[in-house]
Amino acid sequence: MTTTEKPDYKVIGTRPIRPDGVEKVTGKALYGADIHLPDLVQGAVLRSPHAHARILSIDTSAAEAMPGVLAVVTHSDLPVVADKVLDMGEGASTASDMSKNVLAADKALYRGHAVAGVAATNVHDALTAIEAIKVEYEVLPPVLNVQDAMRDDAPLLDASRHTRTPTGEESENASNVAAHNRFEGGDVEAAFADADIVVEREFDTKMVHQGYIEPHNGTANWNSDGTLTVWTSTQGAFAVRGALAELLQLPVSRIRVIPMEIGGGFGGKIGVYLEPVAALLSRKCGRPVQLTMDRTDVFQATGPTSGGHMRGKIAVKDGKITAAEVSLAFEAGAFPGSPVMAGAMCMLSPYEVENFKVDAYDVVVNKPKVAAYRAPGAPNASFCVEQLIDELARETGADPLQFRLSNSAREGTRMITGVAHPRIGQEETVQAAQASDHYQSPIEGPNRGRGVAGGFWFNAGMQSSVVASVNPDGTVNLIEGSTDIGGTRAALAMQLAETLGIEYDSVRPTVVDTDSVGHNDVTGGSRTAYASGQAVYEAGLDIQQQMVARAAQLWECEAEDVEYADGGLRHTSDSEKTMTFAELAGKQMETGGPLQGRGSVVARSPGAAFGVHVVDVEVDPDTGKVDILRYTIAQDVGTAVHPAYVEGQMQGGVVQGIGWALNEEYYYGEDGRMENASFLDYRMPTSLDLPMIDTIIVEVPNPGHPFGVRGVGEVPIVPPLAAIANAVHDATGHRFTELPISPRRVVEELHNLQ
Amino acid sequence: MKEIDYLAPSSLGEAYAALQNGKTSAFLAGGTDIIVQLREGRKEVDQLIDVKHIPELVSYAWTDDGGLVIGASVPFAEIYEDDEIVRRLPCVIDCATLVGGIQIQSRACFGGNIGNSGPAADTVPALIALGATLTLGSADGARDLPLEDFFTGPGQNVLGPGELIITVNIPPQPANSGSFFHRFIPRNEMDIAVVNVGARIDLDAGGERIEGARISVGAVAPVPLFVAAAGDALVGETPTEDSFARAADIAAEAATPITDMRGSIAQRVHLTRVLTYRALDRALERAREA
Ligand SMILES: Cc1cc2nc3c(=O)[nH]c(=O)nc-3n(C[C@H](O)[C@H](O)[C@H](O)COP(=O)(O)OP(=O)(O)OC[C@H]3O[C@@H](n4cnc5c(N)ncnc54)[C@H](O)[C@@H]3O)c2cc1C
């Protein structure tokens, strides 16, 4: 569904094969652990068996003396770093927290926290050696959820941490609450007093992991000239370079990060875990060192996203939402930095809400430090708000989509941050869902129900730069620095081809290392097709301009008399004088030498994304199993550059959302051990658990992008949690306010079991 | 992971000798349990004895009276690809097709599932419902015992240090009998049973009255349970919602599960009742088709 007259694109909107496709499906693509170097040695990491413990001493002497062992490192090998904030692109952390997360300092703050690293001639020796490291722990009681962590008498993860209050002051007492922020507008009290209907409920969600297939890895070579080369699977080579520079106190110019192909990230491959340890080990032993994680390490020691506790209260008068009061407390894991603020700012953004009070608490607990995960914070917060909205729609007797439409935000509506929406596609997206075949078909049969929910995500802009070199045969090499997770090589090549009016196959994109292209922020925040796309567009314009000048030189006319159009050049008044792109590309030597276009942007108008989901479920009331019968997602994507990849992003977000809604959770024992740290018991959906997910692409072009592109990758994970909860409520009459809505929870709640 | 010896005896005699060489051993049948456990450091042994080259363990045959003797190492795929077994013992197929996916089924076997002795092993309630026995062998000779008497705790069984499972023996089934096995898992694939149940119902010649019933429940106790009382309660009854519900209640009362990441006590007791009832219902259908 396109809402405006779309320009007559030639490449955009087609579905070509991705440039990295053949290498990947034939197993030839090189992922992080595929790098092999002369003299490469393997390492292993010793991890804390305790969720919370003071480290009294570490004795590495026995390990160092073992055969095959080349180096052992602990936190004391890391330089002391300041509390400087490191913005990683999606999620920030201070350098000192990151340093303590990479290798535990005085305390182990979660089970799996890295305590020491070993390099040895082979991995077996390294694994044997870590067992020989003697660590003396004073075991402390762990804090495993926000409610416990916020109690006055809670054990403190860091006795020197105080709460940063909404007014920017520090709390008097030390606390596990790192920050409390508040958004307030209008007169909430009055609106609640005046309302027709008010609903209020509490909600709980669990920590969940992105579940990318490729485990983390890092290979480092500390050269004798003091330069450091790192190979890793990451969403942002420049983010890794920046973090390493801070953690190791090296100038960025001495570090080269080579991004390998990446087997999934979803936000979880932005921070550094193994890379600094591999670098320290390499410095000590003088050989390149490789570290890899297994799945248990990935679950226990890399960033999942927060679970948390939420309380929401929403009022309606005359069918309009008049007030919302929501309190969110999210687990940050061992160090501050949960996505609670993002959740707070997203959850009400699809709607017009004049009176609001929103509190957001960032709470540390003895679990791994969270990382970004697809629209970080928004799915949890929407699980709360979109269920309350469902309840309000029911109570007012309104159709749940019509209710959302009547309350929809549009251009000019202010979000709780005070920022007004530019042109957005919220209303169009709700309407597309309303008009869908799915929503128009009745849902019939016992124990079946339908749910809907909406979602919002800002999308990010940030910095991108590319270089495009014209080859003599009329093809173009596109050099970019955005690692390709979701098909961005193709999406960027398409935008360059469109800009230049040449064939998609004429553009050959390559992702290069940090020494070989200008700065690029992470592939995250749904920014790459949008922001790097804008850089690509500028590089294309640069080539166009240079080609115009060169054509003018050849035709001995003024540049103003030459026009770049339809993939070639023509004289504006002499129709005899035309040249194709390839013809001029073949005359580079005689027109001034190699032709390169450059594009560098700080993209500032990402264009927010909205999604509306419709889901049908069937619940077996006796076993508690929820089957997803049918799923339809409508989403405003601005302009679908490569519709198949856009659909893939939409479906992928839904799949992860279904897992989060129905089965996924970090399941902890009282001792703070994650008991299900494997793909067997951390239950992501398999293909047999999913229906075909129907997609409706809505295109309300982003006025802030030359082709109208909006980010698409994140918002599709926002609505599923609430949409499924709403559908299960429709099927059973019971409202599930705690995730996951697993068979266990369903039978326990429906049958009042304890 | 330390170094491990690998032995591949080609006869029972060689296997018994290997078991007496003073080293700690595990058997390697399909390896789908043991290799995982060794790699994760959950088990340590000096040697792996491959039991896929011993003729008695890799073949199966019908007995003259209609029973089926299955070598301990016969992979599940070989069993469920046999049309006659599919026709005559559908309950065996219920469990054989359910363990893992096609790769696992092409390697894994009854001997491994039973030898691993997990409380949630999927073939065990099915085989107990069918009245299966095991033939165990050692240098001292062979002995038979009912499958339900084999297990002594999670991962533990009655096997002596020099002993192995040679065959699983399924006795001939009564004329008007039907059996069914199923499990509950949170997803549609890739899980360990939260509860699994096997049930057999033997009807009288008229198909009116229940002459015998066997009910077995897994994942609700340290060992797979044979709940004789639940089956006995059905003897002489007509197969009705009420009689099935009573048997299901008795099965649920026998359950003493734990709470862990796979399920809670309350959920497992509840599911024992639900799954037993449903298994009886399906077993009855098969008995009537028989
Ligand atoms: C991906 C995956 C999915 C799985 N799904 C299921 C499932 O759905 N349901 C289920 O129940 N299990 C499942 N399993 C577990 C496993 O596949 C089964 O238990 C299987 O039957 C084991 O058989 P095996 O031949 O591979 O045994 P092995 O791993 O070779 O051996 C297992 C144990 O049995 C012992 N053993 C083997 N043969 C003998 C013998 N002749 N005498 C005495 N002891 C012996 C061994 O010493 C060892 O301790 C799964 C495993 C994997 C990896």
Description:
The complex is a heterodimer of chains A (754) and B (290). With 754 residues, chain A is an alpha+beta fold. Among the domains of chain A are: 21-28 and 461-603, Aldehyde oxidase/xanthine dehydrogenase, molybdopterin binding domain (Aldehyde Oxidoreductase, domain 4); 32-141 and 239-285, Aldehyde oxidase/xanthine dehydrogenase, a/b hammerhead (Aldehyde Oxidoreductase, domain 3, Alpha-Beta Complex); 421-455 and 608-750, Aldehyde oxidase/xanthine dehydrogenase, molybdopterin binding domain (Aldehyde Oxidoreductase, domain 4, 2-Layer Sandwich), CATH 3.30.365.10. In chain A, 27% of the residues lie in helices and 26% in strands. Chain A contains 20 helices and 30 strands. In chain A, the strands form 8 sheets. A 7-stranded mixed sheet of chain A has the order 3-7-1-16-13-14-15. In chain A, α15 (488-500) links the parallel β22 and β23. Chain A is globular. In chain A, 58% of the residues are buried. The model of chain A has no long low-confidence stretch (mean pLDDT 97). Chain B is of the alpha+beta class. Chain B has 3 domains: 5-50; 55-170, Uridine Diphospho-n-acetylenolpyruvylglucosamine Reductase, domain 3, CATH 3.30.465; 177-289, CO dehydrogenase flavoprotein, C-terminal domain (Enolase-like, domain 1), CATH 3.30.390. Chain B has helices at 12-19, 34-39, 76-80, 83-88, 90-96, 102-105, 110-116, 123-129, 228-232, 241-254, 265-289, and strands spanning 5-7, 25-28, 47-50, 60-62, 68-71, 133-138, 141-146, 151-153, 156-157, 164-170, 177-184, 195-203, 210-218, 225-226. Chain B has a 5-stranded antiparallel sheet with strand order 4-5-10-6-7, with helices on one face. Chain B has a 4-stranded antiparallel sheet with strand order 11-12-13-14. The mean pLDDT of chain B is 97. The complex binds flavin-adenine dinucleotide (FAD). Flavin-adenine dinucleotide (FAD) is lined by residues 26-34, 36, 51, 57, 72, 98-100, 104, 107-109, 111-113, 115-116, 121-122, 159, 164-165 of chain B.
